[in-house]
Amino acid sequence: MARRKLIYEGKAKILYEGPEPGTLVQYFKDDATAFNAEKKAVIEGKGVLNNRLSEFFMTGLMQIGVPTHFIKRLNMREQLIRQVEIIPLEVIVRNFAAGTIAKRLGLEEGTPLPRPIIEFCYKDDALGDPLVSEEHIAAFGWASQQDLDDMVSMALRVNDFMSGLMLAVGIRLVDFKIEIGRAWDNDFMRLILADEISPDSCRLWDIETGQKLDKDVFRRDLGDLADAYTEVARRLGVLPTNAPAPSKPTLIN
Ligand SMILES: Nc1ncnc2c1ncn2[C@@H]1O[C@H](COP(=O)(O)OP(=O)(O)OP(=O)(O)O)[C@@H](O)[C@H]1O
Ligand SMILES: [Mg+2]
């Protein structure tokens, strides 16, 4: 088989050239990193889980009208996506205080926030993805005011959708991060949801026990990360784990 052209290798994923112009193949690795890659490990099975979960969330989002880069899943670790020009911002939505906002503002983790708070971080590993304001974004031209308005409304839609989905399976969506990109249809530009939505990019707590089911398990050495992600997938019915044996042979790819 001809080798595919590598476009980009990141910490958690690899992008290859796709079969058609304007498409990419996104490969989910088992690598886990935290604290700007100071802490690293290989968590067997993480890539498979994130590929399935990101597919599940993006498919649902498309069904409610949020445009995403997801085209189709190709196999256990790869999905076909639409290539976009990533806006160099991480868009964070917070419903409860945790992580850096808790530290920065002296809030106890788990404190409900008065309303969803959106933060932007400038995507630059060398700088540690610093928090930036809309003022910085406008001044440096990373996004226009119109883009910013659209990004905020998209982020809030993702928040409502994901919060409801998680609540239904007894999980609190504490916060999450998304990336958004520009796609062109002829001369018409629109913003679409890109990258991934997975327990790598969300904080997910069991509603009853507060047990963490996201990457904090790895960041804070709280147990087995793959077990936590498997639990999220199982509750959402995304993996056939513990499901009764299918009556006819199922194609597993
Ligand atoms: N649809 C897309 N089109 C183009 N680039 C994308 C798309 N979706 C995600 N990306 C980019 O692909 C890369 C995915 O790799 P990964 O998440 O492993 O990167 P990373 O190590 O987190 O680094 P980065 O700081 O670049 O995000 C990211 O740079 C992300 O911005
Ligand atoms: Mg990334």
Automatic annotation (TrEMBL):
GO-annotated cellular components: cytosol
Alphabetized Pfam families for the sequence: SAICAR_synt (PF01259)
Keyword Lyase: no
Protein EC: 6.3.2.6
Pathway(s) per entry: Purine metabolism; IMP biosynthesis via de novo pathway; 5-amino-1-(5-phospho-D-ribosyl)imidazole-4-carboxamide from 5-amino-1-(5-phospho-D-ribosyl)imidazole-4-carboxylate: step 1/2
Positions of the SAICAR synthetase/ADE2 N-terminal domain: 6-235
Protein's UniProt name: Phosphoribosylaminoimidazole-succinocarboxamide synthase
Organism the protein comes from: Thalassobacter stenotrophicus
Gene: purC
